[in-house]
Request: fold
Amino acid sequence: MPKIKVPRKNTHMDMTAMCDIGFLLLTFFILTAKFRPNELVEIVTPASRATETVKDDLVTISVDKIGNVYYVASSPRRKADILEKMIEKYGTKYTMLGSLNAKQKAQFTQLEQIAFPAQAIPQMVGLKQNQLKDMQSRGQLTGVPKDTTNNELGDWIMATRFAYGDDKITFAIKGDKTSNIVAIKRVIDVLREKDVNSFKLVTALEGNKD
Amino acid sequence: MAQIDTSSGGDKGKKVRSKKASTNVDMTPMVDLAFLLISFFMLTTSLSKPVAMNLSMPIKEKNDEKKAEIPESKVLNIICDKDNNIWYYPGFVAAGLKTTNYSPDGIRKIILDKQKEVEAKWGKDSKGFSQIICLIKLTEDANYNNMVDVLDEMDITGTKIYAIQDVNKLETEAIANGGNAKVQ
Reply:
C-alpha cells in the first residue's frame, strides 16, 4: 500500500491585510493625538482623583511656582475679541496699545499665553515663543498683574466674558504643585469678584499610589 | 512572500525565459513595527492627559446678613499648614488643635470618624450623604498641592458640604502656640 502523502501546506500567511490595519491605526493615533502646547513655564499639576477630561475651550489661568499668573485664552477668534475689549479699556491709557495695527492684532491671536502687563502687549506680540521662553528663563516676564491696585487679571476675565457673550465659558485654574497658596487664593478671589463662582482646577490623573 | 518559483526549468533547448520574480514581500517585520508604534503611542498619550476637578465657591455677599446658621457639632476644621502638616479641630472654637498628615490613615480617617459622629447625632441627609461640614483653611505657607489633596479627600470621603475659608486670628495663634489656644 502506498503511503498516504500529507500535502505540505505553505505556512506563510499573507500579512498585507494586517499591515494595512496596523498602519491605518497608527496613522489614526498619530493624527488624533494632540501635542502638549509649547508652554512658557513648565507647570507640574498636582494629581487628583478627578476623572473629567479637560475640554479645549477652557480659559486657563496658570499660576507658576513663584506665583506669576499667565492667561491662556482658547481660540484665535476669541483672542481677537478679547483684545478688542482690552483696547477699549486701556487704549487711551496706553496709547501704544490703542494704536495696534492689524498685523500686530493678528500676531496677538497667535500668542500661546499672555504673560505680561497689557502695557507691554505692543512690544511683545512680535516675539516668537522661543524668545518669550528665553525672557521667562531670565525672569523678565512678570505675568499678568493681579494686585488690588492693578488688577489686570480681573480685566482680562471681564474682557473674556464680554467676548464670549452668551456662549458658555469655563474658567480653569492650573497651578503648580508647589505654587504658594496665596497666589492661588488671589486668583480665586479675582474670579469671584468677577462673578465667576464655579470653575475647574486642572490636575493630573492620579497614579495608583494608594 | 519569498517562495521559490518552481514553475520553470527542466526543459532545455527552449526559449530562454527570464525568471519571473515573485512580487510578494514578507510583511511580517513591517506589521511588527506598525503594532509596536501603535502600542507606544497609545501608552504615552494616555499618560499626560490632564483632568479637571470642579470647584464652586459661594457667591460673594456684600454684607454678612445672609450667613446660614450651622450647628457646631457638624463642623470639622481642617487647616493646611507648611511642610504638609494638617491641623484639625471640631466646632467653632480653635482650641486643642491636633496635627495629622495627608496619608489615608491621617486626615481621611479623621474625616470618616467625624462623619460617624455626625451621623450618630444627625443621621444622613435625604440623599444618603453624611451631613458633616468641613471648613478648609489654608495658611500662607501651604501650597497648591495641599489644597488639591484636601479637596480630593472631600471626594473620597463623600463629604458634600465644604468651604474654603481664610485662617482666622485665633487659629493662627493656636498654631503658633503648638495647637492650644493662647493662655490668657
